[in-house]
Amino acid sequence: MYNDQDQKYLDQFDELSAYPINNYESIIGKNEVLSIKDLAHSLEERKWVHVNSTFEGGGVAEMLKSVVPIAKGLGIDCKWYCIEGDENFYSITKRFHNIIQGLDQHFTLEDLLETYIETNKRNFEHNKIFSDMTIVHDPQPCASIVHGDYEGKLIWRCHIDTSEANEMIWNFLLPYINNYDGVIFSMKEFAKKGIKKPVYQVAPAIDPLSKKNRQRTHKEALNTLEDLFKEHKIDAERPIVLAVSRYDIHKNQKTIIKAFKELKKSADIRKLKPQLIMVGNLASDDPEGKEMYAEILDFIDGDPDIYALLNIPNNDENIGALMKMAQVYIHVSNKEGFGLVVTEAMWQGAPVIGSNVGGITLQVIGGKTGYLVDPYDVERIVAYTKFLLLNDEEREKLSYYGVEHVRKNFLVTTLVKKYLVLMRFLLGIDFPYFRIEI
After folding, report:
1. What are the E-state strand segments in 173-332?
2. DSSP secondary-structure letter at 348?
3. What is the C-alpha to C-alpha distance for residues 89 and 112, in angstroms, rounded to an integer?
């Protein structure tokens, strides 16, 4: 849009073409496709905008790369904008993220007024957004409701758990939040008290037709991973225990490493020779990732059976293939907004051990689609991992029910459908069935 060496401006993602909803018919069925088309019919040529803080990295960007094209394919004028900031802005908003999830972090008045607020202001100095519905994602652009320039209905979409947010930062954000026409959380339990506007529950979702999430055969997965395995000397014949996430203190990777080292002490498991593969990417709005990755490498301490990979090539295809190959997938965050990587792993048929935290509990149904544990319960993580590695029948059962649970609840078509219902409500067409007031 605008280019100036001294200022940062709202940027638009222009690379997404319309994508027909009919392409999902083989996965969700003809009736569901027709239902989505019916909802969209009265919204044709209406304007729908998303605003967030990064085009690359993280679940929000990944979802929008599917939501926007599908909306366009349904005849809606859908656009995606990203606010831009300097390294200091992203450092501050990362601290926002941490403190909202309960960590003790330091802020100065300068951080809040001269960096956070001013960045939100600068992004709109030469930009105005007019839309029938604008969804502003997460804390980074939250203040743009006051300091930006919008026309139309505005929704704040929070992808993190605010229920235990620090009072200081929550009281700072709350006046901005209460300027929106409504707020979306992944779970109603994530909403801290003080919100005066309607609150809606909408779960995140994955695109089953994306490179990462397309369902593939075991042979296809092996072929995809050939170069990656050769580069890192990973043996495709040995069982794979997999963990995929950002390198972040809340993802609790050290507990996974500790559990895996304990697991290897079992005589039965030593015969299988399992390997732990951990994969993570760095998002542009997460400056702490490099430091956390260095800590993880130190914690691994040279264990030859543990691989901590960062920013792997052919990322989407390799991640999807790894999830298809995994005998066990572990995700034991101590804080989690939703955990889309759990959805992705389940969709590929990987049996999941997940922590009983946040949105993971919507996905992992104990004994049916996976197993839930306390985040730091090493003993139980070891027991479930051992059980799954030694029991093919149990892995197959969890795999089947996991895939079907995702198909019914957590595909991008369901996400788009709920957004369309909300848009119709905001425009006075009808009432949403998923409204939750607090």
Report:
1. 182-185, 199-201, 240-244, 275-280, 306-310, 328-331
2. T
3. 10
Closest CA relative to residue 173, chosen from 232, 88, 102, 116: 116
Number of domains in the chain: 2
Q: What one-character-per-residue DSSP string does 177-204 give?
A: HTTSSEEEESSGGGPPTT--S-EEE---
Q: Which amino acid is at 182?
A: G
Q: Are residues 244 and 186 in the same domain?
A: no
Question: In a 3-state reduction of DSSP, which class is residue 3?
Answer: coil
CA distance 74 to 18: 8
The CATH number for 271's domain is 3.40.50.2000
For residues 417 and 39, what is the distance between their CA atoms, to the nearest angstrom? 8
- What contacts 206, CB < 8 A, 6 or more positions away? 63, 213, 340, 343, 344, 347, 406, 410, 411, 412
Long-range contacts of 15-21 (CB under 8 A, 24+ apart): 16/65, 16/68, 16/69, 16/72, 16/80, 17/69, 17/72, 18/69, 18/72, 18/73, 19/66, 19/69, 19/70, 19/72, 19/73, 20/73, 21/70, 21/73, 21/74, 21/413
Q: Indicate the SS3 state at residue 430.
A: coil
What are the φ and ψ backbone dihedral angles of 116, each rounded to 5 degrees? Answer: -65, -55
Range of the domain at 423: 11-205+411-436
Q: Give the 3-state secondary structure of residue 151.
A: strand
Within 10 A of 86 (CB to CB), how many other CB atoms are there?
10
| Same domain (yes/no): 402, 417 | no
d(CA 197, CA 233): 54
pTM exceeding the 0.85 threshold for the entire prediction: yes
Q: Which ranges constitute the DSSP H helices of 77-125?
A: 87-100, 109-110, 118-122
Helix axis angle for 378-390 and 392-409, nearest 10°, is 110
Q: Per residue in 28-72, pLDDT tens?
A: 999 999 999 999 999 999 999 999 998 987 789 999 999 999 999
User: What is the reported pLDDT for 109?
Assistant: 76
The SS3 call for residue 398 is helix
pLDDT computed for residue 238 by the predictor: 97
Q: Are 228 and 258 in the same domain?
A: yes
Residues in the chain with pLDDT values less than 70: 1-8, 283-287, 431-438
* Beta bridge partners of residue 370, listed in sequence order: 352, 366
Same domain membership, residue 344 and residue 227: yes
Distance CA 125, CA 64 (A): 25
Query: Do 396 and 427 belong together in one domain?
Result: no
pLDDT the model gives residue 5:
43
Residues 79 and 104 in one domain: yes
